[in-house]
Amino acid sequence: MGACERVEELLGPMLVEMVNCDWPQYDELVVEFYSTFHHREGSFFEGDTISFSLGRMLHVMFIPQFAIASGFYAFEDTSTEEFTNGLRGVYVNPRELCVTSAELERFWGTIADRGFSKTNLITSVRDPIHRFVLKVFSTTLVGRKSGKNKAN
Hints:
By secondary structure, the protein is mainly alpha-helical. It is about 45% helix and about 10% strand. The two termini are about 25 Å apart. The mean pLDDT is about 80.
């Protein structure tokens, strides 16, 4: 399997379509969205958990609404226990349907040269395809406050 096919397999069809978009207004909309996107941590079902501007309109919603609007989840998916409990973060002590820090450390050990930490460097990821996909996620889907070379 070639590099392009591996990236497409890791990203999935929706993200591939988004990355490949070449419509002239796409760049403007992406900049507007990411420069105004705000997620209020600790909230999930509160109406103003997520806010952003798109097409010069302010949108305010809670996480399930955003999941549906983004196309990543169908309405039925947002009412499942996996959705409501599985997207809450990483925990030290095991919680049903959640990732533990030990599981995350074990996973990181399969893809990186260094152990998992709060300041993971993208350069420690061995496979350049995984490095590329992690960079896509860490700089687009997951907002970062700083650190151009970080992967967490």
